[in-house]
Every structure is written in structure tokens, then in C-alpha cells.
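Practice problem 4.
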């Protein structure tokens, strides 16, 4: 069930979509506060597929629409936090630039971070400073395509080793920065699977020794496959 919401903000209200089992409940506390990337919106395939998968697992997600300015997006996060009050999620996240904004806007009460297609590098520049500042008590999940030109997996793993908190990594086989895979028909079910895996991660706090896993498309079965959490080699 989805519900459109508007939150007061200078110049114009922030458009939000609450997706959960009972979106009519004004006091409902979603599990995740999430936003899109710089060039996208709440209707983009990467967002819609992730949200569908996440909400299908029974958890609620509140997404908001922002502009392409990073500082402005951070302020929008803060406005949504203030509006929700005691019902604000303790898990924040976003896609691409939205993931950066989520980290920068996090509160002391934030316990979990969901970083989809985190734009780790542009050429030689590595955007790792804010990642290294995440508190040791938090948990972070990265979901990245192994064809993402802005987040090479080996460079991401190097940063994860330097981070103070627990980190988890989901590789989406064949996916680019926009979470597109081949064949094209596989993009939606693979995107839905990413949302389901993140919801499972958020719900189940014990994963044994497993901190990594892979989502891939099985051409024979014509479905998205998840390895489950496995220990790093």
C-alpha cells in the first residue's frame, strides 16, 4: 500500500511516498528513510524496484523527492526527520548521491545505513571520508553492481577495511550504476531482489560470519538468485 505525503519546506513542500502494509496510519514508523540519486526521481526504475522488494518483506519505507544539490538534499533529510519526530526511522539510506546525503544527515539515533550504488570514486578521487566517520556502533550495507563505473568492488573493499563499523556488501552481478542488467527483462526482478535482501538484513541482525553475498540472474530458471550471506574469503 502506498500513500503520497507532503512535508513543509521552504519554497515548496517535499514530496514523499510511504510504502507499507498500512500507509493510512499517521503514527506509523517506517523502517527506512530513503531518497533517490541526483538525476533520478521516485518513479525511476532503480527506486521503484527496490521499494517494491523492500516493502514486500513486510517492512515500511518512506522515500522523498529531492533536487540535484547535495547540501539541499541533506537539509531535506533533516526536514523529514523533524516532521516525523518520534516516528522517524533509525535506518537511513539512498541511491548514488542520495546515499551520500543519507550519511551526512544521519542522527545520533541512526543505527543502520543502506547505501545503494554508492558513488565511491570519480576517476582518482575517492569519496571515503564520510564513510570513515560513520560511528563504530552502526551497521552499513552496500549494494553495488560489479559493472558500476563509480564503485569498483576492489576499491570498495579497501575502504570497508578502513571503516570503524560493521559493513556488509551485496554484489549485483552484471549491474551498472543504474542497476540495469542484461537481459533487460531481468532488471526489474533483480532490483526487487535487492530490496528483499536489504529488508532481510535489517530485520535479522545476526548473519553469522557472513558479510557478503551476490544477487544474480539465472537465465535457465528466469529468476533472480541470492547466495545468502557468506564469509569473506
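Answer key:
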Amino acid at each position: 500500500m502506498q500513500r503520497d505525503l507532503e512535508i513543509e519546506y521552504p519554497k515548496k513542500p517535499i514530496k514523499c511516498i510511504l510504502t507499507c502494509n498500512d500507509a493510512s496510519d499517521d503514527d506509523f514508523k517506517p523502517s527506512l528513510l530513503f531518497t533517490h540519486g541526483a538525476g533520478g526521481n521516485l518513479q525511476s526504475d532503480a527506486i521503484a524496484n527496490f521499494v517494491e522488494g523492500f516493502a514486500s518483506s513486510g517492512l515500511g519505507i518512506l522515500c522523498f523527492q529531492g533536487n540535484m544539490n547535495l547540501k539541499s538534499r541533506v537539509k531535506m533529510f533533516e526536514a523529514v526527520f523533524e516532521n516525523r519526530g518520534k516516528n522517524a526511522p533509525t535506518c537511513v539510506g539512498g541511491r548514488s548521491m542520495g546515499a551520500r546525503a543519507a550519511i551526512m544527515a544521519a542522527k545520533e539515533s541512526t543505527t543502520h545505513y543502506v547505501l545503494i550504488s554508492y558513488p565511491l570514486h570519480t576517476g582518482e578521487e575517492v569519496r571515503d571520508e564520510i564513510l570513515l566517520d560513520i560511528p563504530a556502533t552502526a551497521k552499513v550495507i552496500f549494494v553495488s553492481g560489479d559493472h558500476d563505473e563509480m564503485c569498483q568492488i576492489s576499491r570498495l573493499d579497501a575502504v570497508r577495511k578502513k571503516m570503524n563499523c560493521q559493513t556488509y556488501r551485496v554484489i549485483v552481478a552484471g549491474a551498472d550504476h543504474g542497476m540495469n542488467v542484461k537481459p533487460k527483462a531481468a532488471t526489474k526482478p533483480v532490483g526487487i531482489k535487492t530490496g528483499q535482501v536489504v529488508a532481510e538484513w535489517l530485520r535479522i541482525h545476526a548473519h553469522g560470519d557472513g558479510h557478503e553475498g551476490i544477487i544474480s540472474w539465472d537465465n535457465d530458471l528466469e529468476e533472480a538468485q541470492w547466495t545468502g550471506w557468506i564469509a569473506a574469503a
